[in-house]
Amino acid sequence: MAVARYLDRKGDGARRREIVTPEGIPIQFTLASIGERMTALVIDIVLVLAAVFGAVLVASIASPGEDDWISALALLLVTLSRHFYFAFFEIRGHGATPGKRAAGIRVIDARGGSLEASAVLARNLVRELELWMPLTFLFASRLVWPDAPVWMWIAACGWLLVVALLPLFNKDNLRVGDLIGGTLVVVQPKVQLRADLADVRGARAKEVQTALATAKPVPAGGPAYTFTEAQLEVYGIYELQVLEGLLRGEAAADATAVSTVAEKIRAKIQYTEKVPLGQDERFLADFYTALRAHLEKRLLFGKRREDKFDTRA
Fold first, then answer.
1. Judgement on whether residues 18 and 158 belong to the same structural domain of the protein
2. Distant-in-sequence, close-in-space partners of 293: CB < 8 Å, separation ≥ 6
């Protein structure tokens, strides 16, 4: 089960968290601020309204005088967009709508696993009760309830206020949809290759890249463990940096943690060769070296793999 905790409580550090993934790898991240989330929501709403307005404008030009039909079309588009826009982009875009991408944030699973479609659908269906229904009563009450009493308008205002303030009263800035869907909204990390931990360069780098290209063991004196292209395709830059953090940090001295991570990686990449007892750290170091060389080779050809969820070729 994922473990989330404060890393510190001062300044932006109060939004820092750490999750232990099902593979046993600790990942640190920063929670998205309420301002960043509001910015993303406003951008998404503007995009949705612009798309609906454009479609209605085209329909009105193509069918002049058909006001009833155009009004029905506008209502249908607004209903479909507010239900499926967010869910579609968060499922297909690895937790990020266009607004979230612009704000530099994304949705993740709060337990450290992959973001499930069911969680995305749950958090976005709740948005109907959180946001859209109260807004409808406030700005279009005559359409849905022509004789709505004043207390209904007041209730809608109160409900919006409660929903808007809820993230202020929990440590992870969660809205109701996050609580039900089991999700967090975090700042998208800036991933890039850093200085090589294994100092792979010169002849050694060419040797590793040649071995990867042919999927054969490197000559004696090279890494103790070699990996195929298919095995190295499983992970991306983000996982490489997580593994680097593990090998650099104090966790490397913890044999249990190292063994757990090595076992999870072997299962994930379907590594079938036997690793002797006490060689897990060497296995991880060789995997790091090979994965880094593989990613660098891809970058030379303009192919960038951000993380294990990035399906781009």
1. yes
2. 200, 205, 208, 209, 212
Distance of CA 289 to the CA centre of its chain: 26
Q: Which of 94, 93, 89 is nearest to 44 (CA)?
A: 89
From CA 201, how far away is CA 203, in angstroms rounded? 6
**Listed residues 131, 157, 187: the one ending a domain:** 187
In a domain, 307, yes or no: no
Q: What is the percent of the chain where pLDDT is above 70?
A: 75
* Residue 61, domain member (yes or no): yes
Could you give the count of Cα atoms lying within 13 Å of 111 in the half-sphere of its Cβ?
A: 10
Range with the lowest mean pLDDT among 4-8, 157-161, 225-229, 255-259?
A: 4-8
Neighbours of 127 (CB within 10 A): 19
SS3 state at 49: helix
Q: Are residues 30 and 109 in the same domain?
A: yes
Q: What pLDDT does residue 300 have? A: 58
Which residues are bridge partners to 186 per DSSP? 31, 106
Domain that holds residue 151: 5-187
